[in-house]
Amino acid sequence: MRHIFKKHNVILAALLLTSANVYSWETMPENAPTPADNPTTPEKVTLGKMLFFDPRFSSTGTVSCNSCHNVMEGGDDSRAFSMGVHGQLGGRSAPTVWNSAFHSVQFWDGRAASLEEQAKGPVVNPVEMGMSDIEKAMDRVRIIPGYKAYFDAAFSGSNTMSVDNAARAVAAYERTLITRNSPFDRYINGDKKALTEQQVRGMGLFQANGCQACHSGPAFNGPAMPAGTGFYSKFPTFADSPYTEKYDLLKDKGRADVTKSDADLYQFRVPTLRNIADTAPYFHNGSVRNLNEAVKVMAKTQLNNDISDNDAVDIAAFLVSLSGEYPEMIMPRLPPTPGTTILMD
Amino acid sequence: MRHIFKKHNVILAALLLTSANVYSWETMPENAPTPADNPTTPEKVTLGKMLFFDPRFSSTGTVSCNSCHNVMEGGDDSRAFSMGVHGQLGGRSAPTVWNSAFHSVQFWDGRAASLEEQAKGPVVNPVEMGMSDIEKAMDRVRIIPGYKAYFDAAFSGSNTMSVDNAARAVAAYERTLITRNSPFDRYINGDKKALTEQQVRGMGLFQANGCQACHSGPAFNGPAMPAGTGFYSKFPTFADSPYTEKYDLLKDKGRADVTKSDADLYQFRVPTLRNIADTAPYFHNGSVRNLNEAVKVMAKTQLNNDISDNDAVDIAAFLVSLSGEYPEMIMPRLPPTPGTTILMD
């Protein structure tokens, strides 16, 4: 171990000399990448917010998109595995919906090429919203009289109340969920008092340890990729640490479960580090409760770095500085079904 | 049956002649009754809204007050029986939180004397929020660093983060949940076009049938009572109709389960009819899906009136006119627990 650590330090020094400035620091842009065929409009955002918060499209009427991706919090549910209808547990930790539009693919395994595609998944997942059929879920939307005007305002054509349009609206809303003006962003923009000394130290350690090899770009989730093409990393890349067993890191095969290819074994989408302080517990399996520990696990399993507790704390302090401001939002009003209910069970 | 019906019509005619104007129509006031020891302040409302929406005080982190009393909808959950942690079912249908401050007691059986007292109940109900102990729930609030400033702003004293203060804040928020300016209110205030002809007809039938014997006052839930004293009615009062079996009306013993007194058998708090169109399914057991049918059941079981389908439809149309405007609200922002989660399971 000591030998590896020493060897690593030599490599690290070389990295510092040759490539420390390869990754520039990027602030959060005002707008997220948006597909040409679904430009964001206020009408879509209004409708998408309503659909996002409406629990009536789950089998029990108790689970909405917001249940696991709570925009009033960090965009997730504070849980290791999310809980869907009838208290059933999902197999992975809910990723944050905040800044999710900066991901070029969706889900931990990247199986959805867009937010539009992603939005349809949980509705028919038996342990999430539990609807048997996406058209049946859409029938519940169609049966609510008040929704039609919102679809007609957001979309053209004679049959605006389609599954695809609902997904487009939800995606348009999600593209507005951007947190900007974090201490980090203000620091990069010239306000040198925006970060504490510890955070500046952590920023240097983040760079020196090579974290940006994966966590680069404005959302700290890797280089800009074409929409639909994911940026993945094998986790654990270095599997021979005690963390592998401690946090059960070889249980979930990652992207290989989707592609059935051994090359994708344990490959996961590199998640954004934006607002990471608000999204514990950490990793695809939510196995790590604490950000300091998550930093140590990442350093060891991804970079084979045994970093000190002090360094981990400093890096975690830097990560806290990536938390931007949550924009104020008006609560949506969900149209009623006057005099009746659409829930059957 | 025919005999009873005839007899009833005679009684009804007498009622029309002698007491039709006993119950005046009252519009919705701007403010709800408020206890002297918990005046509503903006600071309490802000805090109360946060607590109301925060699911982290349920055992699983998935159920907040808003889960069953969804203020984005009609203040309930569209379900017959509410669903709490682990998908467990409660024994009664969630009453709407909208205009709940106009009730002098809370819960269907009136077992809470105030909104403050009510707020503590679901937290420790094993099939609702499922916390083992109210102080343990409060410990979760206390552990969230961002809450303290809100408690200190809302309350005085050295230890503001108490269960009672949390309940006071939630109650203060709930007292702002008032729907005003309904078509009915506008009609009473002089806008004779605010109601349709059918609604005016239904209004007359509502009065002529004697519905106001229970559903009087601005919230249509009975006469003004001292805080803590409930206004109850036996449901079914007339138990010898087919509805008793059809809707299982003798299963739930109502207030007798609380007081253990036979005098309280099948006694339930008279619910508000405000925004009733948005709160299907109906009754304490959510057994009736449709408002027209609910009107017929009430007329028969409470007044022994066999009203026609047409009359029921007209009365239901009038009830729709009691739906006031939902005030626009800013979504609360729930303070994070930076770098960790407070959920343990």
The biggest sheet of chain A amounts to: 2 strands, antiparallel
Total domain units of chain A: 2
Q: Treating each run of at least 4 consecutive H or I residues as one helix, how many helices of chain A? A: 13
Q: What is the total tally of β strands of chain A?
A: 2
* Assembly status: homodimer
Mean pLDDT rating of chain A: 93
Structure class of chain A: mainly alpha
Spans of chain A of 5+ residues with little confidence (pLDDT < 50)? 1-21
CATH names the topology of the largest domain in chain A as Cytochrome Bc1 Complex, Chain D, domain 2
Considering residues with a beta carbon less than 8 A from a beta carbon on another chain, report the largest interface and each chain's count: A-B, 49 and 48 residues
Quick one: overall form of chain A? Answer: globular
Rg of chain A over CA atoms, rounded to whole Å, is 21 Å
Q: Strand percentage of chain A, roughly?
A: under 5%
Instruction: Give the CATH superfamily of the largest domain in chain A.
Output: Cytochrome c-like domain
Write the layout of secondary structure elements.
Two copies of one chain form a homodimer.
Chain A: H1 2-19, H2 42-53, H3 65-68, H4 115-124, H5 134-142, H6 147-154, H7 163-174, H8 183-188, H9 197-208, E1 232-234, H10 242-246, H11 256-259, E2 267-269, H12 291-303, H13 309-320
Antiparallel strand pairs in A: 1-2
Helix pairs in contact in A: 2-6, 2-7, 4-7, 9-13, 12-13
